[in-house]
Amino acid sequence: LENCGGWVNASAFDGFHLTETLPSGNVPAPMQKLAAIVLAAGQGTRMRSKLPKILHQLEGRALVHFPVELALGLNASPVVVVTSPQAENVERSVSSAFPKSVSFQVQEKQRGTADAVKAGLRGIPRSVSNILILYGDVPLLTLATLKRLIRGVKPGRPIAFVTAQLEKPAGYGRVVRERKKVIRIVEHKDAGPEEQAIQEVNAGIYCIDAAFLRKSLEHISTQNAQGEFYLTDLVSIASSAGQVVSTVTVEDSSEIRGVNTRSELVELHQILRFRTLDLLMASGVTVLDPSNTYVSHRASIGMDTVIEPGAHIRGQTRIGTGCRIGVGCIVEDSVIGSDVHLAPYSIVEQADVQKSVSIGPFARLRPGTRLETGARVGNFVELKNTTLGEGSKANHLAYLGDADIKKHVNIGAGTITCNYDGTAKHKTIIDSGVFIGSNATLVAPLEIERDAYIAAGSTITDRVSRDDLAFGRARQVNKSKRARILRKPKT
Ligand code: UD1
Ligand code: CA
């Protein structure tokens, strides 16, 4: 679907690639342009927070980003987020995560879901034929469910919606059927005891023919228990006009769960976490202790990689095959090649690690670190904005910042690049084959040429030429037998 540019063929949705210019003479298949409205004007007071509910995060992403990403994944265009007047920070958060692709409409007063959709429609051009309605606080819905939903809208079937069978349906709108046909949705507060016994609920996720939606919204009133404009009235409007209403029932009801409280947010996180871990294990990743392992739903991990207990793999991290991610490691927004060993308690953030590298234990790779094939970084080594070339090693206790270190360099224990002079950052360049002795202080800007040798304990401030040996320390002085005098008791 990547190439559809917002065009969706409702009858042959999956794997159907559309071209803009069909060969002349062919009758073009009926194409349907899809747009999406994400309802997000609700207050979410039960979060007890200054932050709007939909900006609370699940695995580092705001809740509202989930439905927006789904809509974009279906090439919906435009995607309109309906917000409340107080929520400029919602707009900021969404547009920084999805630049350009999303627009916003404000719903002045919370007068119900139909009114919110009306607000959203202001941002949708007439050329759009189908409109997807999503909620900003329902993050676990899947693309597969939405693809099925979209297929439910066709001539004579102007509306499709998602349902679930719940053991405890209280609070939700119930799906009223007559001989299997959907007749209407009744809200919990408007339902009589018989209707309240219905366990099939409305998830609030719809795909609707745009013309039908625009026309029918005019017929929705507030004559109900809550005095609100109910979007659910569309269902009875369609069915009483003799049209068929499609439903898609999710097997896993967590897909439709919303977030109202902080404890529900935690429950959804647990569900998302195990969904991700199960997928990983099914695809050949070993997770030694799933109950104590955190892998973001946006991460991807290759076959035969082993994840030890207490590891956190965050953000958009990619890890190759045959790796080992040790106990207590944190890896965030990084790319890690195959056969990499991360020994316990190493922290890797926005780093690029090539294959067969070994890291840690207790190593820290900060943003801009690049480790090339076969490099080794040992305990208590910190790197920032630094490349460590092929086969190079920094095995113990070092700080390497703003350094460009080429191939087969040895960085001795205790080496420090002095990259900061109190005002600006400076670069250290260390060419291939260089040996840096232990406890060297490299004052940047500095360049050390190929195969040079830095004596242990040196402070190096000037360029070192190829094959040179540099000393930057006072010579050793031995005072003969002075130790004995020092040790003698004073009288
Ligand atoms: C709605 C459905 C109900 C369904 C339930 C699923 C109606 C009338 N009822 O219930 O059948 O079972 O969702 O959760 O549609 N919103 C706005 N502006 C408003 C009102 C709501 O943007 O004026 C947004 C909320 O932020 C939320 C979504 O719409 O994302 C649903 O609102 P909510 O109040 O949770 O749903 P209900 O109306 O109770
Ligand atoms: Ca509600």
Provide a quick synopsis of the model.
The chain is 17% helix and 29% strand.
Mean pLDDT: 93
Structural class, by secondary structure, is alpha/beta
Number of strands: 40
Q: Name the bound molecules.
A: uridine-diphosphate-N-acetylglucosamine, calcium ion
Largest β-sheet summary: 16 strands, parallel
Q: How much of the sequence is in beta strands? A: 25-35%
Number of helices: 9
Query: What share of residues is helical?
Result: 10-25%
Q: What is the radius of gyration computed over CA atoms, rounded to a whole number of angstroms?
A: 31 Å
Give the low-confidence spans: 1-25
Determine the N-to-C terminus distance. Answer: 93 Å
> What sort of overall outline do the alpha carbons produce when their principal axes are compared?
elongated
What does this 3D model show about the protein?
The chain is elongated, with a radius of gyration of 31 Å. A hairpin with a 2-residue loop joins strand 3 (57-58) and strand 4 (61-62). The longest helix is centred in the middle third of the chain and has 21 residues, at 262-282. The strands form six sheets. It has a 16-stranded parallel beta sheet that branches. It has a nine-stranded parallel beta sheet with strand order 15-18-21-24-27-29-31-34-37, with no helix packed on it. The chain contains nine helices and 40 strands. The N and C termini lie far apart (93 Å). It is an alpha/beta fold and 491 residues long.
